[in-house]
Amino acid sequence: MRWLLALILSTTLCLAHGGDERADSTCHEARRTGGWCEADGAGYVASVAVRSRILYEALDPHGHDFEPSAIACTACRRALDVDGFCRAHRIGFVGGKGYLSPLTYHLARGRAVDPDAIECPVCRENARGIGWCEKHDIGMAGATAVADRASFEELARARAILLAAVEMSARCETCAAAMVADGYCPDHRVHYRDGRPAPATPP
Prior knowledge:
This protein is an alpha+beta fold. It is 40% helix and 19% strand. It has a 4-stranded antiparallel beta sheet with strand order 7-10-9-8. Strand 11 (184-185) and strand 12 form a beta hairpin. The longest helix has 21 residues, at 149-169. The two termini are 20 Å apart.
């Protein structure tokens, strides 16, 4: 599955420039849907602004299509059937799409909401970042609602890794991408696991 990450890291999207009003509208939509805003020079994932295009693409924010018959891994095939996550290959499946980062996998399993329509002040505040509302027993990460507490905690841990990766991206974008996808930075010869350098790195 690592070739999928390499493919995504090499992808460059071409977005058109518009006027200020159009840019504001586009950026608002990008913040709400986890898209890329050219005017801001950032992509948005779980309310986090990601200014590295390499890191943003490595997150695989909207998943990708694939050919199910090409999947050889038994755990991946099982995960595909139940919208699960293959820990061996670090890829999750939701609705027939594959997600190359734990964060975007958990976001995909959540429910998209319009933050402007939220009436609960706690939930509305949580939607500006991340948090759990005890009254409604629901977590918010940006514009995504998660009803299962265990899934929300995993999402929160993955988001914390993203925040660390955003800081890392100012020094090394490849390391940052590897942090969120349990990948390898060939420039610094470091393999990452759960956002940290792994004890043993490839030669």
